[in-house]
Amino acid sequence: MDLALFYFLVLGFAIFMYVLLDGFDLGIGILYPWFNQEGERDHLMRSISHVWDGNETWLVFGGVVLFAAFPAAYAGIALTFYLPIMLMLFALIFRGVAFEYRFKSDTSRPYWDVAFSAGSAIAAFCQGMLLGAIVQGVPVGVESISSLHWLTPFSIFTGFSVMAGYALLAACYLFMKSRGRIQEHAAKLGKQLLMITVFAMIIVSVWTVANQVDIRQRWFSGLNFLWLSPLPIITLVVAVLAWRDLNRHSADIVRHEGRPFWYAATLFLLGFAGLVVGLFPYLIPRQLTFMEAASPDSSLLFLLPGICIFVPLICAYTLWGYRVFAGKVEDYQEGY
Predict the structure, then answer these.
(1) What pTM was estimated for this model as a whole?
(2) What's the rounded Cα separation, in Å, for the pair 90 and 110?
(3) Where does the chain show beta strands of DSSP type E?
(4) Which of 89, 125, 144, 160 fits a 20 to 30 Å CA distance from 118?
């Protein structure tokens, strides 16, 4: 396999793992204002306290792969999107500090609640804006440093769409990890967010196809749409299955309460696949392919042992951590 393609796939894997894993714990913060009864917010914090920092490993890993394997793309993206990237990082910092101080505070706890919720929402929104701006094809480079070309109606819409998607993941995660009123409330929110997320996916897809000639040709020229039609069809089927399981109220739910989360994850995977289909082989649409952005083969070979060691290692300790903390979140302990 070509080394540049290999690193492109590794980068895609890291991005998807980050979106899936950090997506649901950012979503917990987005849902925070809708859980305000006694003990509910403590429960939400405990549900992710053992995984939130490990989930962000994938953000660091993806940044390292982009920097080392595709430096031209890293430079263009970092220069052009400096403001939203820094805003996202500051939001993640405030959110992380809130984890450490909230359980130790008394009178200042409401401020840490705000830091956690606002930090989660801002980080998710910035990630959505970055996605929208890159898909839209914002010019990158030194000449774009002081501009706000990335701030468009489309990028703002994708920002809110990503927030809705992360909140859907979080609602499904709470449905899986909670009991009683919190589980019922998570199911209710999950159904609403599922409709919003599917609607947003449709709007973003239509908007992109209508405005991007290259993507429209990729999907609709010749028999391409026939071959690619399983993506939207499966997406709708998965959405219906997720709705069905969130809407169940029977003893059968106990055996299947984890399925809505995996259906929501599948929605993200299908959306990611559709994005790759439309943009491949570009890292920056219509400007820079992954082959053009790649480091020299000597550098890629130098990186290879580290990638081969650390990707399985990160996957192993992530799986082990989730296995150790499998099951319902219990609220009898103090702190986290």
Answers:
(1) 0.92
(2) 19
(3) 282-284, 288-289
(4) 144
